[in-house]
Each structure stands twice: as C-alpha cells, then as structure tokens.
Amino acid sequence: MFKKYLINILFVVLIAGFAYFFAGVNLALASGTDNVSGWAWSSTIGWISFNGADYGVHICAGDSDSHTGCGAGSDGKMVGYAWSSNIGWIKFDPVGPYPSSPSQAAQVDASGNITGWARACAGAANADCSGGTNSKAGGWDGWIKFFNITLNFISSPAEFHGYAWGSDVVGWVSFNCAEGGNCNNSNYKVTTTYNLKPSAINLDIRQTADYCVAGPSITTSWTFVGDNQSAYQVQIFEGNFATLVKDSGKVSLTSNSFSTIENIKYNKTYSWQVQVWDSSGRSSGWIKDTKTVTTPAHLYPSIKAVGFSWIPVEPARDEDVSFSNNSKCYGAGNVETDCSWSWTISNASYVAPSSPTVKEPVVKFNSVGDKPVIVRATDPDGNWCEASKSVKISVKLPKWKEITPF
C-alpha cells in the first residue's frame, strides 16, 4: 500500500513537470464573468482552484449567455479551466471521445445534478486537452469523471456537493468540506451563482365565467420552478395551437395566473402555452399545456341576468300575484328558442290554469312574511340558470264601507 502511494506521489511530481510546461500555453482561459468559484480538495494532488485572475469555470445560463463556449442550446454546460499546482489545467468542456458513459463533457441537468467528464490537460496529447493520451504521462489520460455531484440551491450562492474520480493520479476530488465532515479544519467548497433554467409545472386551463350572467372567459395558471419569477407571457390559441387569439406579451409580475375574455367565443376549443422569467432574466422558453377547454355551444338562459318581477308590488295574503320575466333561451348559433320553466314558491297555491312550469305564473300566498321565490329556466340542451328573490306578503286590509250614523 505504501509502495503504491509512493509511486503515485512520484508520478504526480512527474506530471507536475508537464503541468508547468502546459501552464505557459495560451489556452484563452477567461472570457466574460465566470460564475463558479472556490476550492476543491484531493488527497493526492491537493487543492484545485476554480477561479483566478485569468482563468475560471463557468456554467452556461442559456442561449443569451455570451460567455465563451456558451450560446444556443448550452444551458447547464460547464466551460473553462480550473488550476492545480500539481497537475496544472483541468478543462471542464473537453472534446471526446470520452472513456465511458456518459458521452459528454461536464453538464448540469434540469435538476441540478452534474454528470460527465473534465480532463487534466497534462494527461492529453495536446495542450488544449484534446487528443489521445500524452505519451510522456505514463499511460495517464487525464480524464476525471463526475459521480453524484449536485448543486444545492438552498444555499446562496449554490454549493457543489459530492465527488469526482480521476484515477490513481487524481484520486477522489471533494467539492465541499461537508462531505468529509472536516469543515472545522478547512472550510472549503465550490460555489456558483448559476441558477437552474426556470420552468413552469402544474399547467391548467379552465373556464371561470358564470355563463348565466357573462360570456366565455378563460383562466390559465401554473406553478413557477426556479429562484423567483420576475415575468410571464401567455399565449392562447383557437384549436390545437392553430390560431393565436390572445398574447399577453411579457408581463413583469410574479402572478401565476392569467385570465381573458378577449376573442374567446362560444363553441370553440382553446389551447395555450406559457413562458416564465426568473430574477436574472432567464426564460424557460415556451411550455405547452396538453389540456384544452371547449366553450359552451351557445348562450345560456338569461333569467339570472334579467330577473323577474310581480304585480302588485306589495302583495297581501290571499291576493292574486302575477309573476313576469323577459328572459330568453338560446340554441345553436345563439338563436332564440323556447325555455322549460320551473318555479319554486313558498307558502303559495297556483291560480288555475297557472302551474309551476309556465313562464309567468299567478299565485296566492296563504301566509304573511318574506317568501322566497326561485325560477329556473332550462334550454333544450339542458343548460339552466336560476334567479331568486324574496316577496314580502302583508296582511290583507279589510274593506271599509261608509255608512251614515243615523
């Protein structure tokens, strides 16, 4: 065991010579502001620095990130170089072919897990960390694989947690002292100001109108995933994303819902999509909901909106009370059609030929007080609306007949 450890130490010393040589090669190390900083630790090669005056590691923050190596489709890609005084430059976006799965350079996924490969340039055939194995590196190819490394976004800035493995030369690389339980001895860690690409989940679209008093309306909602929502944009389409009928534009609000009546029609199916922005201005891109809603075929009965009335306005017990209303029912194309009626009138009897199923019944109330009256109108498709009021019934005044006293 001691022999193997001694051999590794001697090998690191040898590699350090190559690292010194490669350190003089212009690698175009820094471009833009790097968002990764701090130190990692290897018991074999010692400290690894993730940022310096002319070098650093960066995690690409989407299409708008202008950092060298970032751009379209680069969200979560790690680029740039770290530095070890023992093995020199470590590149985080080396080209393949890679030793084994996963066949990619270091990459942060949508959940904050880091997988893939970095490479120590001293183990590569070329100074830019490309090519096969350096013929003078004793068979060491410089590859370092990320194992179970995650970003903890509860902390600010986010902290790396976990280990990478770099063969016997580099050994296990710890990115946070918390893994070894020795933060009291050396409080090291690698951190980043990178945020995960924002997203939206729990997408929903629903009709929120009371069709008895209003026309069609749609409400969409979502749950934001990310640090903090700074803006949103909603687009609503007629059909399956066929015709755009409403675009909210970019709205700088933290609200997680959007409602509209604009261009929403009867007897139509609607779909929608949303994109959200986080506090740093990163967009989720368009996220489509798989659900749709279809509005009613036509207007609902108007009884709730129109209401009803009665004569006399202040009726008495046992007095004929005539109800009337101007409500309508509708069919296809919002063409007026007949309604079915249902009256519920407390403590009253219907005056023939009136009945609970006529449009405008006549009744007599058999007691005094406030009497609830409910009428329901139903169209031929079964859509119904109700209106209700209270009728105050008083005592019927006696009839007076004037007579002479003598």
Automatic annotation (TrEMBL):
This is Fibronectin type-III domain-containing protein. InterPro entries: Ig-like_fold. It comes from the Bacteria. Pfam families: Ig_Rha78A_N.
